[in-house]
Amino acid sequence: MYVLAIETSTSRSSVAIVDQDRVLASASLGIPRRHGEFVAPAIGFCLTQAELSAERLTGIAVGLGPGLFTGLRVGIATAQSMAASLQLPAVGMSSLDVLAFQARYVPGLVAVVVDARRGELFWALYRSLPGGVQRQSGLRLGRIDQLTAELESQGEDVLVIGDGSLVYRRELQVVDVELAGPDIAWPDAAVLGELAVPRFIREETQRPTDLQPIYLREPDAELGWEERGRLYGGGRT
Amino acid sequence: MLVLGIETSCDETAVGIVEDRFALRANIIASQAELHAPFGGVVPEVAARAHLAQLVPTVDHALVSAGVGLSDIDAIAVTAGPGLAGALLVGVSAAKGMALAHDVPLIGVNHLRAHVEAAQLEYGELEPPLLALVVSGGHTSIVVMDADGRFRQLGGTIDDAAGEAFDKIARFIGLGYPGGPEIDRLAQQGDPTAFAFPRAMLHDDSYDLSLSGLKTAVIRELRRLEAAGEQPDLADVAASFQEAIVDVQVAKTLRAAGAEGLDQIVLAGGVAANSRLRARFAAECEANGQRLIVPSIPLCTDNGAMVAASGANLLAAGVTSDLGLAVDPNLALAAADATA
Ligand SMILES: [Zn+2]
């Protein structure tokens, strides 16, 4: 079994090829807004390093967010079109679940907090279980004060992970939580792949078109007239 | 040789398939107009979301329509710009996924030149040099395709695109979206000389156009009439407004053709569907002995077949893109993608 995993929901993009018990190849880039340029060449790199052709893949896994929309769509569009083209099963997973799994050996409550830009964050609470983690809350979108209120109301120690814990370090230090560092700040495609393998084995898979981002935020109703380039401006006919 | 073309630069999710550069095998367009109608214009985030939801089904639809499988496709062409960044990125990412899956070439295409090259699907091999007016809600550009196949831009709108002006005025006078067809319809009952709206930059030396002053003038006139308690004849307003837009497009395009010594004119883009614009160009070109090339409406509005045609030309010239292809919202008609 060869699973291609793509995770682009944060400012870090990563791709990996995994099988049941190892990561055959992986690549990541921590430079924001470069998902579009990075993902496809990285997949090519991983295939080459793993000495595989795309036809030998058995499934495509992708992180569905919540996260930064533009990056998410790069990963999901790539995953959709590869899965559809190769007629492969797909597995989409919440990127917060992937990130929580990266802290599965931590006892107690873990808050996964991802920077949503524009003064907001995505978050969810998790608790470790034998072999994994279990989500203890819904996936939320809110401001930092709403997050700190929720953390304070837990009445127990909480470890905060994700890039939100880096961006909002000062605000989070006011409440009594432990903050993780950059080592578990971004969801990783290799971990996503590892999580997805049992789903492919159990055939809990999706069709390519079922893969859609977890947005949690309504689209801005700002018209594109101003966004378009002027003289050469793009688009609509 | 089959090339599949993907177009997601604005609010149409479109996929076309072209065989051997000239034969149209499929041209499927999933319009988002209904999604944007409540806003009276294109909302970039709404467009990007809809592209992601529509793209794979539209590719499937195009393959079925052409009676081929993806494994029969020899290259994937995709609009890399100009357009809305988030919208472009969905198409380009999907195109890369397909190119990776079947190990076929990826070809990044310029949307404006693709509009011009769409004509080869109905007129056969274009014989440059020629002049093109690409006019839509996103662009109003006068471009030259030189004898060597290279494209260059002579001018364009410095503010609103023509289709955008149609949308804004349609919205102001309570017509539906998109505004172009609505104004066109209403104008047919109106008098184009009823109001003397401005034709900005009509007499200057550049090939640039400005339409925002016209839009403002129409709105100011309607407000003045309202304040005076007069009921304007909206058909007259629509006809006069449309005439002003058409006058400027025709005058600038023909002057450019004259100055460049070009006797073939291509009309492309969604606003090329406007009946008055078509009629005026037909009459003027006939009088001047110029050849007018106007693709039918499904090849004029944003479509995937034009992208496939442009990609097929690039491929024939040995031009392909690597998988790191970036989108460029302001992609210029650079000489780098010349086919000759
Ligand atoms: Zn266009």
Helix content of chain A: 25-40%
Strand order of the largest sheet of chain B: 3-2-1-4-5
Largest sheet of chain A: 6 strands, mixed
Q: Total helix count of chain A?
A: 7
CATH topology descriptor of the largest domain in chain B:
Nucleotidyltransferase, domain 5
Strand count, sense and closure of the main sheet of chain B?
5 strands, mixed
Chain oligomer state: heterodimer
Bound molecules: zinc ion
> CATH topology of the largest domain in chain A, what is it called?
Nucleotidyltransferase, domain 5
Describe this structure in words.
The complex is a heterodimer of chains A (237) and B (340). By secondary structure, chain A is an alpha/beta fold. Chain A is 30% helix and 24% strand. Chain A folds into 2 domains: 3-95 and 187-231, Nucleotidyltransferase, domain 5 (2-Layer Sandwich), CATH 3.30.420; 103-184, Nucleotidyltransferase, domain 5 (2-Layer Sandwich). Chain A has helices spanning 35-49, 69-86, 95-101, 144-152, 163-167, 169-173, 189-201; strands at residues 3-7, 13-18, 23-29, 59-63, 90-93, 109-115, 121-129, 132-135, 140-142, 158-161, 178-179. In chain A, the strands form 2 sheets. In chain A, strands 6, 7, 8, 9, 10 and 11 form a 6-stranded mixed β-sheet that branches. In chain A, strands 3-2-1-4-5 form a 5-stranded mixed β-sheet, sandwiched between helices. In chain A, strand 1 (3-7) and strand 2 (13-18) form a beta hairpin. The radius of gyration of chain A is 18 Å and the shape is globular. By secondary structure, chain B is an alpha/beta fold. Chain B has 2 domains: 2-117 and 303-337, 2-Layer Sandwich (Nucleotidyltransferase, domain 5), CATH 3.30.420.40; 127-298, ATPase, nucleotide binding domain (Nucleotidyltransferase, domain 5, 2-Layer Sandwich), CATH 3.30.420.40. Helix content of chain B is 44%, strand content 18%. Chain B has a 5-stranded mixed β-sheet with strand order 3-2-1-4-5, with helices on both faces. The longest helix of chain B has 27 residues, at 234-260. The two termini of chain B are 19 Å apart. Chains A and B meet through helix 1 and helix 2 of A and helix 2, helix 3 and helix 4 of B. Zinc ion (ZN) binds at residues 111, 115, 136, 138, 269, 302 of chain B.
